[in-house]
Design goal:
- The structure is a homodimer of 333-residue chains.
- Chain A has 3 domains: 52 residues, Orthogonal Bundle (434 Repressor (Amino-terminal Domain)), CATH 1.10.260.40; 127 residues, Rossmann fold (3-Layer(aba) Sandwich); 128 residues, Response regulator (Rossmann fold), CATH 3.40.50.
- The first copy, chain A, has 14 helices and 12 strands.
- The first copy, chain A, has a 6-stranded parallel β-sheet, sandwiched between helices.
- With 333 residues, chain A is of the alpha/beta class.
- At the A-B interface, helix 4, helix 5, helix 6, strand 2 and helix 7 of A face helix 4, helix 5, helix 6, strand 2 and helix 7 of B.
- Chain A binds a DNA duplex (16 and 16 nucleotides) through helix 2 and helix 4.
Chain lengths: 333, 333
DNA sequence: TTGAAAGCGCTAACAT
DNA sequence: ATGTTAGCGCTTTCAA
């Protein structure tokens, strides 16, 4: 048997013998409240377990304290991916720092229920939304941009105009990777990366090309193999690439590198003796491979933290933040 | 250059030349609106990209259409775990069926920010919340239960009284597993499972004990080894158990079974010849092990779907739904 | 079929 | 230091 009357500020006030304004002041830690009144109000609030209605609060204050992260990704991809794990951890941290509540909206497919999707980010629902760039999120990003939604995009969408965006320096990263392989004396340096609908892949190819060109080499397009950014994709791409006899490979994602290792092992090719490998991402798994993978480490958690920071800022001006990456040299190259 | 005035029902109505009530009716697909009026309103809504304010809607209708899933789990555990992947997929499906929006609240630590935690599930924020049972969620579950929050618990918390709860038949599952091993003629059947703060583990031990007893055997407690429900935990527990020379092991989670396989391989013990193994969970990875793992399959996605169903129901009476599990026989036993 | 009016529960400016 | 009042933007009777 619990309380009979619906709890509101008014009701709490009635029980204490003060007005709802006073209760509101107590709840919001307003200074101008008599200590004894404050104590009595707090006692009743405690005793009743009263929680102010969030919808009413949001309506009047025009803010919810909620940050949404939208991920247009298959659930099993989402959960298998160390990138999201780190990103979410970073966003969570950022939210904690800014006193915001973090909520993830995993969306199996944008096509599926566009009505819900747009409702989710209507006014009064979240204070801001973080969207990760990817082949399926481009339309959503454009809609939200045009609607003036408070949004930060992580990564590189097709159209970056008019966005607040945060990304890592993909081009330089792959340039570092390829340069490292060249400097180690490798002659036939190949590239394995995601298909072109993943825009970061294009940037990484650019870096790879740039490094070769800078070293006075010509780019052999047959040494560039693209596939889905999964272990299997890396495996397939490697099988294709190995036909052309590379003595080094820059793999544009660590996950694909796992597949590349598999393909190399199957052929009996030694790493790095026969084929040197440099990855990109810096996932934990890269260090656990045999041999440990030399890779370009990107600060994923920081990306998440900074995204929240950007969202929390007053300014809503278009802006790009590009974070630097680092080459971690291990045994594979 | 976009619209100058803030868009509200009132403003849309003004532009069309009708009252805000009429606009509301159009938006909510109310039947009694003249076709031409409806068309004109829809045109302006479309043209302006107007979205009704969700906070205002929630305030008056007392519902948000939002279902929250709270997971008191470390981020990297969460993302590595196929259980959550399947569960979230099921919940997402359930929400889609009921026209609800699904939102996940990953909470790194309950201790960290109790104020936020409780604010998250205050009135007017979500229509209902799903909480997964686990060692850290017991306090939260009790608070929400006492507050009368619309909640469904997945799994087995410490105190199940007064809850709407959905779970799988852990006891019977482990009974099936152990019985299978006994029927295959195994003499020393061990048990490896999570530490006792994971309550489902206790149920699975019960099933294991029950099977031995039913077969007229005595339970040797030295053959029961508990550790964290991770690959490493399984590995450690197996090392400990192997000292006592089991010829079969029921591992209470597939994830731990991966670690058990490792330990067995290290000792040069063959599966199932030297030691037969039966897992529990039915994750994809179980089928991919060498040899493929015989395991008790639980319907995780269905658990998620049914949880939403339960939440969407009118009744808020305490209730328990226990779903059946199945033994999938493969090569490991 | 439509509009006017009340009110959801809260915050904040204004009075006292 | 506290109460009164006016909305926030919407849904929903109730009249017309």
């Amino acid at each position: 048997m619990r309380h009979t009357k619906k709890l509101t500020l008014e009701e709490i006030g009635a029980r204490v013998g003060v007005s709802r304004s006073t209760v509101s002041r107590v709840l919001n830690h307003h200074p101008d409240v008599a200590p004894d009144v404050r104590a009595r109000v707090e006692a009743v609030v405690e005793e009743t377990g009263f929680q102010p209605n969030q919808a009413a609060r949001a309506l009047v204050s025009q803010k919810t304290g909620l940050i949404g992260l939208v991920m247009l990704t298959e659930m099993h991809e989402l959960f298998g991916d160390p990138y999201y794990s780190a990103l979410v951890a970073g966003i969570d941290q950022g939210c904690a720092e800014h006193g915001l509540i973090f909520s993830m909206f995993p969306v199996q497919s944008a096509e599926g229920r566009p009505d819900l999707l747009s409702r989710q980010f209507a006014q009064g629902f979240v204070d801001g939304v973080i969207v990760t760039a990817g082949p399926f999120s481009d339309p959503l990003i454009e809609v939200l941009r045009d609607r003036g939604t408070n949004m930060v995009v992580i990564g590189h969408p097709r159209d970056t105009s008019g966005l607040r965006r945060i990304d890592v320096d993909n081009r330089t990263g792959s340039e570092l990777a390829a340069t490292h392989l060249i400097e180690r004396g490798r002659q036939r340096v190949g590239f394995i990366g995601p298909t072109s609908d993943y825009h970061y892949g294009a940037e990484r190819i650019d870096g790879y090309r740039g490094a070769l060109t800078a070293a006075g080499r010509t780019v052999d397009d047959r040494l560039i193999c693209l596939d889905y950014p999964s272990v299997d994709g890396g495996h397939r791409a490697a099988q294709q690439l190995l036909v052309h006899g590379p003595d080094a490979i820059h793999v544009a994602t660590d996950t694909m590198a796992v597949g590349v290792y598999e393909a190399l092992n199957e052929r009996g090719l030694r790493i790095p003796d026969d084929v040197a490998v440099v990855g990109f991402d810096g996932f934990t798994r890269a260090a656990e491979l045999a041999p440990p993978l030399t890779t370009v480490v990107q600060p994923v958690e920081e990306v998440g933290r900074r995204a929240v920071e950007l969202l929390a800022e007053a300014s809503t001006e278009p802006r790009e933040i590009i974070l630097p990456v680092n080459l971690h040299i291990r045994a594979s190259a």
